[in-house]
TrEMBL record:
Alphabetized GO MF terms: oxidoreductase activity
GO cellular component, one term: cytosol
Protein's UniProt keywords contain Oxidoreductase: yes
Entry-linked InterPro entries: AKR_Detox_Biosynth, NAD(P)_OxRdtase_dom_sf, NADP_OxRdtase_dom
UniProt organism field: Cellulomonas cellasea
Domain NADP-dependent oxidoreductase residues, every copy: 17-311
Keywords assigned by UniProt, alphabetized: Oxidoreductase
The name this protein goes by in its record: Aryl-alcohol dehydrogenase-like predicted oxidoreductase
Length: 322
């Protein structure tokens, strides 16, 4: 397994991360395709065997049950000090004043709740899951700084926001001498490249490392056009990757993969990992070959012609979403 520093921080992370939104009790969340604890166990064991030590979850994943499963998996299959554990705050956990958002009350309350579910004293990377336009950025950044100073969080990350919003939060932290973000978890793949306009240049300037989710475009870039899975046929977010303008890119991934004799997933992920701003790509694994293909992608070095073949068919999107 290769490792890289998270942005310009001193933290080294595995180039492939395990996305844990796929694990949790289906009855407690929005997604019916998630794996329960017994079904998820082999993927945590496989992650440890492959050296995939960056594990990413969130408080809202399946009503908190993802955090519970992840926490037990850390204790069963690894040593806490060997895992870079990440979780998030923002989404609604309950109707009370501290149940959602990025107020000081919410940050402190939800972090403590996440630590209890994870069964740990600290998280390595704590992400704000979305921007909260109802709370002053100074309030959020000071609260995040305080949990770092308290030893409950090692590094801060942001996720799924506009570049100006990240810049505003970073600026507030810099003005007051508070802890700044060192990671950005956004959607970035061969079918969604709008972050190249502003977010990626900003992250490069600020020394923020990308830990992109959906590097395989919800699996669309990992299978020939027209093939469906249980998730792609039922998940409204996954269905959004069935646009006609996406097909030329998917077809290009298939051609490059066939010419190399490797799975499409390796080619699509190799394209993401080749970007200098990317520290770690977050991969969701629900089948035995998912993590194996992801790790194998580290050995796939696309040449200039292959890269151009994947990038040239891309169609810019006017309405970006996360």
């Amino acid at each position: 397994m290769e490792h890289r520093r998270l942005g310009t921080s001193g933290l080294r992370v595995s180039r492939v991360g395990l996305g844990c939104m796929s694990y949790g009790e289906a009855s407690t969340g929005l997604h019916r395709w998630t794996l329960d604890e017994d079904a998820a166990a082999p993927f945590f064991r496989q992650a440890v065997e492959l050296g995939v030590t960056f594990w990413d979850t969130a408080n809202v994943y399946q009503g908190g049950t993802s955090e519970e499963i992840v926490g037990r998996a850390v204790r069963r299959y690894a040593r806490r000090e060997d895992i870079v554990l990440a979780t998030k705050v923002h989404g609604t956990m309950h109707a009370g004043p501290g149940g959602s958002g990025l107020s000081r009350k919410a940050v402190l309350e939800q972090l403590d709740a996440s630590l209890r579910r994870l069964g740990t004293d600290y998280v390595d990377v704590y992400y704000v899951h979305r921007f909260d336009d109802e709370v002053p950025v100074e309030e959020t950044m000071e609260a995040l700084h305080d949990v770092v100073r308290a030893g409950k969080v090692r590094y801060l990350g942001a996720s799924s926001m506009w570049a100006w919003q990240l810049a505003t939060m970073q600026h507030a932290a810099q003005l007051h001498g508070w802890t700044r973000f060192t990671a950005m978890e956004d959607q970035y793949n061969v079918l969604r490249r709008e972050e190249e306009r502003e977010m990626i240049p900003l992250c490069l300037d600020q020394g923020v490392g990308l830990t992109p989710y959906s590097p395989l475009a919800k699996g669309r870039a990992a299978r020939p056009w027209g093939e469906q899975t249980e998730r792609s046929s039922s998940d409204t977010v996954a269905k959004a990757f069935d646009r006609d303008v996406d097909r030329p890119v998917v077809d290009a991934v298939q051609r490059v993969a066939e010419a190399r004799g490797v799975p499409m997933a390796q080619v699509a992920l190799a394209w993401v990992l080749a970007k200098p701003v990317v520290s770690c790509a977050i991969v969701g694994a629900t089948k035995p070959h998912h993590l194996a293909d992801a790790v194998a992608a580290l050995d796939v070095e696309l040449d200039a012609h292959e890269t151009a073949a994947l990038e040239d068919p891309y169609t810019t999107q006017d309405n970006y979403w996360w």
